[in-house]
Design brief:
The structure holds two protein chains of two kinds. Chain A is an alpha+beta fold. Chain A is built from four helices and nine strands, in the order βαββαββαββαββ. Chain A has two domains: about 80 residues, ACT domain (Alpha-Beta Plaits, 2-Layer Sandwich), CATH 3.30.70.260; about 70 residues, 2-Layer Sandwich (Alpha-Beta Plaits). The longest helix of chain A has 13 residues. Chain B is α/β, with parallel strands linked by helices. In chain B, about 35% of the residues lie in helices and about 15% in strands. In chain B, the strands form four sheets. A six-stranded parallel beta sheet of chain B has the order 3-2-4-5-7-6, sandwiched between helices. Chain B has a six-stranded parallel beta sheet with strand order 11-10-9-12-13-14, sandwiched between helices. In chain B, strands 16-15-17-18-20-19 form a six-stranded parallel beta sheet, sandwiched between helices. The structure holds thiamine diphosphate and magnesium ion.
Chain lengths: ~160, ~550
């Protein structure tokens, strides 16, 4: 199962290497990772989506992260009210005759075309995982040539 | 006062109470060595950086203080890594200081550059690359705090040589406050009460203690609790010395080469109180068959150790000394263990630890027993790795913490001798014996030079079987006696010792064993004894890897 975890870390060089090193050394999987500075420039905020077969592994991942000296706190969003978003950019096959079909897909889901060329278009959307899934489903008919995802970011509701 | 980085380093080490550094010089630590030239800190020049790391580790295990080693950049630093990994696996507080190429050259493949913080990331508790001389004092303060607190471990500080030369004000932070590092010390009172109730309700309780007892200094509390409960106790290799081996409640070591009765007790117990131990695979054997009837209480300072391998009914995170102290107070109803102790007595009679002693040949176990007799159990014993290590664990009775020093987690051949050297430097009045194998001793034999030069009079007892014995034992038992590359062509150890200026003794007859040990102890020099022992002797009992603990090969049934 996939779990979204957020981690507050000291904004120092090498911290990301410590985290990725921990995951590779212990055989855990990171599905996505997003990193940014916080309002306090000495602290960075990481949102990671991790793959864990069971509760025991998820527990170990959280404990091992906490054990790293530069990690300030670890929050598991699995059972916590939170908002999740991800940004995607998709390059699809497109010509002017597809305009109405594409617009109807985009309008229904709330995505937009940032560029329409003579044989491709670039679609942008920000949303949660269900919305993104629905968009990708809708775009299939045009042929998705390239897809870039930012990785999830998440914030707790409290 | 303004001073250069090298001087700041040494001043900071003095503030931390460091009395001795083990190390080796080189281009990128010259400024530090220049300060060491007339600093009032003892420096021991080893013959190899690995020796320095193990010596710092052995010093720490014997004294409880933080061990310090120092090496230059590149090859000096990489030579430390086995020693660092060894300390990491056994949670030994150590600070390793390495020189680095000048900060503006980092990343340029400069001469003798190695990314040692990158290399050691997974084998240190934490590490630092110091990029600003103003950060140096604070970094050292933090490094010592991190190394020694919580679950201890090695911390590496990499200092570019230009930082060693730059000047800054020496400002010593009195307090350490790391917002991202707050180890738990006191256990949760509710959990401790629950544990007490569970123990009260048990009929066959068993205490399983590990190295955490020694780290925490909880041996008095452990003894008090064990006696209060009148419960049997077993321990891991790292736990040896946490409880008197000569005590009637002691079952000795458990696991792969543990006593049969300790392993039987695990398989029959209805409650296991694990303290400062981590259910390592050498202890549990086959996991799904481990302690099938037991509820488990697990006390450990490291949350990641809990429920990692074995499901735990009551986890308690914190320092063993505090938690055991509280548990003793909370125990008001004591379980009746008399039947359980009778069962155990039966196992002790039926399957004691044993070996076939012979008149005409020296048994390695006999040598260990004789070292015990001669030192009256008061020596510090270090070990190498292999059969020698297991015999040293089985046949010497350790009654005191920090008297058995052995590479548990990493199983590093070549650890015992430099560790003995470090222990002797820390506790010069103690007799220190390295119980060695003929293979292992050759992995750091060069430290004979260090010992002789510095009059570090350790004693080495080589149980010379002419084999990489433990590997040979596995080949005998599981690979049809196909002894692939496990025979050793050895040097003349006596001459070797003598060429270093040490004393060498060869013993080929059983009746000469006690004399040789006496002579080694009374000789005011480094002594190496080459005991020619039974070549194909095996370590028993043995639980084959991956088998349940009660599936022991008993040896002599
Ligand atoms: C550095 C290192 N390399 C290899 C091993 C694997 N190993 C474990 S025991 C052993 C044999 C040790 O031989 P010796 O020192 O003669 O001890 P004995 O078992 O004969 O007492 C070997 C090769 C190890 N533990 N450490
Ligand atoms: Mg041998």
């Amino acid at each position: 199962m996939r779990h979204t975890i957020s981690v507050l870390v000291e904004n120092k060089f090498g911290v990301l290497a410590r985290i990725s090193g921990l995951f590779s050394a212990r055989g855990y999987n990171i599905a996505s990772l997003a990193v940014s500075e916080t309002l306090d420039p000495t602290i960075s905020y990481l949102t990671m989506v991790v793959e864990a077969e069971d509760e025991k592994i998820l527990e170990q991942i959280k404990k091992q992260l906490n054990k790293l000296i530069d990690i300030i706190s670890v929050t598991d969003f699995t059972k916590k009210g939170h908002v999740e978003r991800e940004l995607i950019l998709a390059k699809i096959g497109y010509s002017s005759k597809d305009k109405t079909r594409l617009d109807s897909v985009l309008n229904k889901i709330g995505a937009k075309a940032v560029q329409r060329g003579s044989d491709t278009a670039i679609i942008e959307m920000m949303g949660d995982q269900d919305e993104i899934k629905a968009l990708l489903e809708g775009l299939k008919q045009f042929g998705i040539k390239e897809l870039v995802r930012s990785g999830r970011i998440a914030i707790s509701k409290e | 006062m303004k001073m250069n980085g090298a001087k700041i380093l040494i001043e900071a080490l003095k503030k931390e109470g460091v009395e001795v550094i083990f190390g080796y010089p080189g281009g990128q630590v010259l400024p530090i060595f220049d300060v060491l030239y007339d600093a009032d800190i003892k420096f021991i020049l080893t013959r190899h950086e690995q020796g320095a790391a193990h010596a710092a580790d052995g010093y720490s295990r014997a004294t409880g203080k933080v061990g310090v080693c120092l090496a230059t950049s590149g090859p000096g630093a990489t030579n430390l890594t086995t020693g660092i990994a060894n300390a990491y696996m056994d949670s030994i507080p150590m600070v390793a200081i390495t020189g680095q190429v000048k900060s503006f050259l980092i990343g340029n493949d400069a001469f003798q550059e190695a990314d040692i913080t990158g290399v050691t990331r997974s084998i240190t508790k934490h590490n630092y690359l110091v990029k600003d001389v103003k950060e140096l004092a604070k970094t050292i303060r933090e490094a010592f705090y991190i190394a020694a607190s919580g679950r201890p471990g090695p911390v590496l500080i990499d200092i570019p040589s230009d930082i060693q030369q730059q000047e800054a004000e020496f400002i010593w932070p009195e307090e350490v406050d790391i917002r991202s590092y707050k180890p738990t010390s006191f256990g949760h009172p509710g959990q401790i009460k629950k544990a007490a109730r569970l123990i009260s309700a048990s009929k066959k309780p068993l205490i399983y203690a590990g190295g955490g007892i020694i780290t925490s200094g909880a041996h008095h509390e452990l003894k008090k609790l064990t006696e209060k409960l009148n419960a049997p106790i077993t321990w891991t290799l790292m736990g040896i010395g946490c409880f008197p081996a000569t005590h009637k409640l002691s079952l000795g070591m458990l696991g792969m080469h543990g006593t049969a009765y300790a392993n039987h007790a695990i398989m029959e117990a209805d409650l296991i109180l694990a303290v400062g131990a981590r259910f390592d695979d050498r202890v549990t054997g086959r996991l799904d068959k481990f302690a099938p009837y037991a509820k488990v209480i697990h006390i450990d300072i490291d949350p990641t150790s809990i429920s990692k391998n074995v499901r735990v009914d009551i986890p308690i995170v914190g320092d063993a000394k505090n938690i055991l102290g509280q548990l003793i107070e909370d125990m008001d109803k004591i379980p009746d263990t008399s039947e359980w102790l009778k069962t155990i007595e039966g196992w002790k009679k039926k399957c004691p630890l044993k070996y076939h002693d012979k008149k005409d040949i020296i048994k390695p176990q006999y040598v260990v027993e004789q070292i015990y007799e001669a030192t009256k159990g008061k020596a510090i014993i270090t070990t190498e790795v292999g059969q020698n290590q297991m015999w040293a664990a089985q046949w010497y009775k350790y009654d005191y913490p920090r008297t058995f020093i052995s590479s548990g987690g990493l199983g590093t051949m070549g650890f015992g001798f430099p560790a003995a050297m470090g222990a002797k430097v820390g506790l010069p009045d103690k007799t220190v014996f390295d119980i060695a194998g003929d293979g292992s001793i050759q992995m750091n034999i060069q430290e004979l030079g260090t010992c002789v030069a510095n009059k570090i009079n350790v004693k080495v007892a080589i149980l010379n079987n002419g084999y990489l014995g433990m590997v040979r034992q596995w080949q005998e038992l599981f690979y049809k006696k196909r002894y692939a590359y496990t025979t050793m062509t050895n040097p003349d150890f006596v001459k070797l010792a003598e060429s270093y200026g040490a004393v060498g003794i060869r013993v080929t007859k059983r009746e000469d064993v006690p004399k040789a040990i006496e002579k080694a102890i009374s000789t005011d020099n480094v002594v190496l004894i080459d005991f020619k022992v039974e070549e194909e002797e095996n370590v028993f009992p043995m639980v084959p890897a991956g088998e349940a603990l009660n599936r022991m090969i008993e040896g002599l049934a």
